[in-house]
UniProtKB/TrEMBL annotation, chains A, B, C, D:
Residues 22-82 form the HTH tetR-type domain. PANTHER family: HTH-TYPE TRANSCRIPTIONAL REGULATOR RUTR, HTH-TYPE TRANSCRIPTIONAL REPRESSOR KSTR2. The keyword Transcription applies. It holds the Pfam family TetR_N. Residues 1-10 have a biased composition (Polar residues). Residues 1-23 are annotated as: Disordered. Keywords: DNA-binding, Repressor, Transcription, Transcription regulation. Residues 45-64 bind DNA. It comes from Albimonas pacifica. PROSITE patterns: HTH_TETR_1 (PS01081), HTH_TETR_2 (PS50977). This is Transcriptional regulator, TetR family. The keyword DNA-binding applies. One of its GO terms (molecular function) is transcription cis-regulatory region binding.
Amino acid sequence: MSTATGQVSPFPTPERRRRDRSAKREAILDTALELFLEQGYHHVTLNQVAERLHITKPALYNYFAGKTEILFACWMAGFEQAAEAIARIEAGPGDGLTRLRALIRDYGLLMTTPRGRCLIRFDDRDFTPEQRDRISACKKQVDAAFRSWIAAGIEDGSIRPCDPKMAAFVIGGALNWIGQWHRDDGPMSPQAVVDDFADRLTKGLATD
Amino acid sequence: MSTATGQVSPFPTPERRRRDRSAKREAILDTALELFLEQGYHHVTLNQVAERLHITKPALYNYFAGKTEILFACWMAGFEQAAEAIARIEAGPGDGLTRLRALIRDYGLLMTTPRGRCLIRFDDRDFTPEQRDRISACKKQVDAAFRSWIAAGIEDGSIRPCDPKMAAFVIGGALNWIGQWHRDDGPMSPQAVVDDFADRLTKGLATD
Amino acid sequence: MSTATGQVSPFPTPERRRRDRSAKREAILDTALELFLEQGYHHVTLNQVAERLHITKPALYNYFAGKTEILFACWMAGFEQAAEAIARIEAGPGDGLTRLRALIRDYGLLMTTPRGRCLIRFDDRDFTPEQRDRISACKKQVDAAFRSWIAAGIEDGSIRPCDPKMAAFVIGGALNWIGQWHRDDGPMSPQAVVDDFADRLTKGLATD
Amino acid sequence: MSTATGQVSPFPTPERRRRDRSAKREAILDTALELFLEQGYHHVTLNQVAERLHITKPALYNYFAGKTEILFACWMAGFEQAAEAIARIEAGPGDGLTRLRALIRDYGLLMTTPRGRCLIRFDDRDFTPEQRDRISACKKQVDAAFRSWIAAGIEDGSIRPCDPKMAAFVIGGALNWIGQWHRDDGPMSPQAVVDDFADRLTKGLATD
DNA sequence: GATGAATGAGGATTCATTCAT
DNA sequence: TATGAATGAATCCTCATTCAT
């Protein structure tokens, strides 16, 4: 990326072009996300997003097709993290209960981050029908992870027999709720919260 | 209100006037609430509300000062039901655990009704600062009920020692979540859901 | 108006009816006029007028056909006072200069009263075309009084030859302006102001 | 700004951009001003302003923050002319009487122009409190000019001793009134009017 | 004569989006 | 790629006015 003289070429290579572009997209996304969470989607104008980035409104359209595209991208950014956690746990070792606890911890932690909060703080009805469909499918994936590991735990004897669906609802509700009440400047660290929750939410489920 | 001939006088008494007015206010409120839950506050226009009531938009202003006033009234209507349940349980008999279970059932049931859903489906940032303050106080009341009965249960021995705050977060989260996933046309009746939840959410807490 | 027993009959005679009605009309007019001068015609709602009178908005329509009718009546109330002054001076003795000075004093005094202020503080374009026509005619009358007495003064030698029209413009402008700057709580009493003005405005005109 | 071939570049330089923008602002201002004087502020809609300019309503918001901003800008445009006249006379030679006469002429002429008329035809109560404050300060400047030159004239002997405040009221009233009665298509040219007024209004004041 | 309720018309303002440059 | 400018669509709200009672 540097010339023989050690200077950075002012002519960006196609490679760097792509990286720049991608970085800008990310910047827009994070800024928008921040504002959306702060003020609520409908109270945020694209002008605000642009201003905070020191660019102009139409420039945003070079990276996103419109306001809901940004919203959607925010949501997806959050989902990717959830999906990664699920994949990681899936790939790792452990019985049903172990995996469930791991997911509770990871998903709970996610809920204390901006990207994670998007998953439940955004209103479904602000998306286009197409986006809604995709989101719905993603949510099902997450739900399926919870349910399947509960079911697996019952199967492998680490979890007492119960209705996985209802159990998942309780756990999911408690975890999602974290995104509403947890404050970074609060008394409990995210890690402490999720450790507590992992215990508490599986206490009644574990066989031992 | 009826003449000797048994006919209702067409001249409304002041009493009836008040009742009529109140009934209309309620009708507006329920219609708005319905639409808000269906489409989301920002996607609902006052025209829609008026149309569904077969009146005109400005007529709404005879009953509410503006759009956010309606929103606020919806929220408060939901809160009143919660407050009533709390008062009823408070006035009734039972140890901490009994009361907690009763609240879980009542609050959970509320979450399956339109008015109850308002409590958690509306976005705080759509209210005026003054409204937000009042709502915040109301929310504290509900939270206090959960925490105080958990604490009372620990005191009276019906609940195992634990952190009432965290326990309340778990329970509150699970219950509020009901408002998001429960469908009236779903497989489980509201009563069945809350009975299950009352069990499930206190299983780990009960001393016996 | 009282019965033989000395009590006032609760059944108003037609005569008293008329007086009541007239009194109410006047009350509305004065209240409206007050508000119009305070806040400007377009910033005053009929609700405000009604409220200040402790009646309801539609009640106003029993006395006036609409908002502009009230405005018009206010203006006319002011004009009547001017017309009376003119008639009184016309009927009285004195040469042209004497009469001009008397008119300056009376018209100037009028400008320090609410009714008088209406004459120049209201915007012509807030009236209907018909009202505008009538007002225009009234204004001409006042203007004619000024001009004719100036002309009469030139004729009778009390005023030095000059263009009556231009002189009237100067005098009229100075007098109307009083309505804009004079405050009841200011340092000069209305009488002091108009005495000063009568002098000042005729100093250059008088022959002596 | 032009290419070697003498053609104007279609790519506006920043400089030209600024000029264009400024010119458009002026155009809006003049159009609005025209309409305000024609129909009165409250009877003019932004749509009318936009239509007369062959643009759309929201385009106006690129140049002015709102309707009252336009109103305010109109007033200020008028004031600037008055301020310039005052500064010019102040900078020039002459005793108090000479300067007073010059101001009468210039201010009187201003009153026969659209921009000048704004100074007295707009209603103070249509401005925001902040604007009102600024306008009030401006008006004081103009008033101060009249009074100070009258006082200066008394000092230097060109004007007979009198109360400068009252004299300024008379002169100001007469001049402002021009804006109400003078028509461009009337019998007297603006210049003729103000020459006459300068004479007439100082006749009683001059020492000789 | 007075009222509560309802209405119709209108107007300012906001904002996502587009386009020429 | 980025920008200034312009637009169209939409919405809340106000208010004079009317009408049944």
